[in-house]
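Next up, a chain.

===
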Amino acid sequence: MLEAVLNNMRLNGRVALCGMISQYNSLEQPEGVYNLINAIVKRVRMDGFFTSDHYHLYSKFLEIVVPLIKEERITYVEDTAEGIESAPGALFGLYSGRNVGKLLVVVTRE
């Protein structure tokens, strides 16, 4: 995906690096990026971060985002697995990059 991002960056663009959970426990070497030169040519800045680095902004974030979600101006994707028996497969999918959006395991609908 970074290849597509770099190809579409503006001059002096900025990329936030996060969300690489599929690589946390991987025993395989991740594939390389073939067009990293675009980061130099376009003077792109890439910053790694954890969401916890900005926890002090959480209440302000909620003030802004919750109304936007209620107005459906922001939407989100939930990847739902049904039943506790599906939890191991769902977790494997999370760590292997198969899921899209927030992963939820619905234990019961009661």
